[in-house]
Structures are given as structure tokens and as C-alpha cells.
Amino acid sequence: MWWVLALLTLVWGLNWPVMKIGVSGSALHPDAYPPLSFRALSMLLGLPVLAAALVAMRIPLALPRSQWWPVAKLTLPNMMIWHAIVIVAVQQLSSGRAAILGYSMPIFAALWAVVLFGERLGVRQALGVAAAGAGVLLLLAHEFGRLSGAPVAALAMLVAAAIWAYGTHRLRRATMPVALLTIVFWMTALTAAVMSLLAMFFELPRWRMPPPHTAWAIVYNAVGVFGFAHAAWFTLARQLPPVASSISVMLIPVLGTFSGAWWLGEPLHWQDFAAMGLLVAAIAAVLIRPAAGTDR
């Protein structure tokens, strides 16, 4: 089971530079590809892989008609908005910076818990939120301060992370007579349909066969992310201790940042190192539960 978690962390962490290559190209292949079309193709090809995984696990694919609307309401904050914003924003940002901003999600989840459900932040959690806020402000200030910066894309990533965090709360609290992975399959299917419509509306004149570097990035996303990672994450989150999943979440932006620097030659500034350190500390403070009787 632990090797599955390790593979999951690797797949998601490396996917940040993979997405960047898929939609923006690289030094060897500087050929941008329409981002919404990239995401739509990835999901459409990933759906059969995810369906095969559910069949292998003997999980029913059928969704009762009474659950169509509840699943649709969960899909909007959990997948549709996140995937649409991220794939467009990653064209404008470095893959590492996008990963750091995107994985501020656990911090927003802690804030939503206070606002929506009346939970109280302990001392460690409050310090974690403050640390994450400082890291995000460092990155935003750097984006606003550079002539070639992309502050709008950076802000959009934060909005996507906040909405994803809200959706996570709603998904955890949903009581539906359907297997969780069945819900994940249909959320992916609905998102694929919406991404396809958006791609048709905004990118139809730019449609073409994906070049080789984009094609393999699409396959990576289809098989690795939508075929494996989604199913593995929701399965493991219910079986492993919270500390294990927390460590995975902390390592993903770190892996995304350094793999982007090594693979794509993306420059790392001191703001990136500082923000990454602050975010990892913040996620640890928010997600890892202390032992009974210790300070919260």
C-alpha cells in the first residue's frame, strides 16, 4: 500500500512540468498547444482507463438517476473549476510556482472549516495559515514586480485552490448511496464533457493533431493522473493514517518545483525556496494531527 502512495506522489509531482511541456512546449519543442483541448483529450482518454480500474475492483459504474444532481454539484468545485483554471494558468507560470500556489489548498481547507463549520484553529494551525500566507505573498509580489510576471495567473491559481478546498469539504460531508470511486468516475466524465465544450467554443480554430511532446503528455495525464492517481488517492485516503497522506501532499509541490527546474530549466528564485519551505511547514501544521494531550 505504501508503494502505491509513493507512486501517486511521484505521478502528481512530475505532472506539473509534464503539463507545462504539453501546453507550452520546451526549449527543444517550443510549440504551444491549446490548453483546454489538452485537458479535454487527457480526460476523454483517461475515462476508459478509470472505468477499467473500477471494473477490476468490482465497483459498479452505474449512477442512480436520483444522484445525478448531487454529483453535478460536487463536480463543479472539485474538478471543473480547478482543471480549467490550472491548465490555462500553467502556460503563464513556471510549473514549480504553479505547483506551490495550487497546493495551498489544505490551508484554504482549514479556513473554510472555520468559516463554514465553526471549527477553531489551534495555535499550530493558525501559525501554519500565517506561514502559507507569507509564502503566497512572496510569490505574488515577485510576479507583480517582474516585467514578464503573470500576476493574474498566480491569483487565478489561488482562486482554484480555494474552490477545490471548498469542494473537498462538500465531498467529505456528502452522504450518497454510491461508492466513492463511482462518484469520482462520473465527476471526471462530467468535467471531460465541459472541458470539451469549452475547448470547442474557445479553441476550435486552433485545433490540430498534438505534436509528439504534447501527445505523450496527454497520455501521461490520461493514464497516470485520471486513470491511476484519482482512484488511488481516494482509496488510500481512507486506508492510511492521516500523516501518510499529509506527507504526500507536502512532497508534491516540492517535487513539482525541483523537477521543473531540472527538466525545463526553470529558474528558481529565493522567493520560490522561501515560499516552498513556508508552504510545507504550513501543510504539516494544518494536516498532521498532534498526539493526544499535546498542544494543538
Overall description:
The protein is mainly alpha-helical and 296 residues long. The chain has one domain. It is built from eleven helices and no strands. The protein has helices spanning 2-24, 35-56, 68-89, 95-102, 105-117, 123-145, 151-173, 180-203, 212-237, 242-264, 270-287. Helix 1 (2-24) packs antiparallel against helix 9. The two termini are 29 Å apart. Mean pLDDT is 83; it is low at 291-296.
- What percent strand? under 5%
Give the % helix. over 70%
Order of helices and strands: HHHHHHHHHHH
Structural category: mainly alpha
Could you report the average pLDDT, rounded to the nearest whole number?
83
- In terms of quaternary structure, what is this? single chain
Count of structural domains: 1
Number of helices: 11
Q: In whole angstroms, how far apart are the ends?
A: 29 Å
Major sheet = none
- What is the approximate shape? globular
How would you describe this structure in keywords?
76% helix, disordered C terminus, mainly alpha, globular
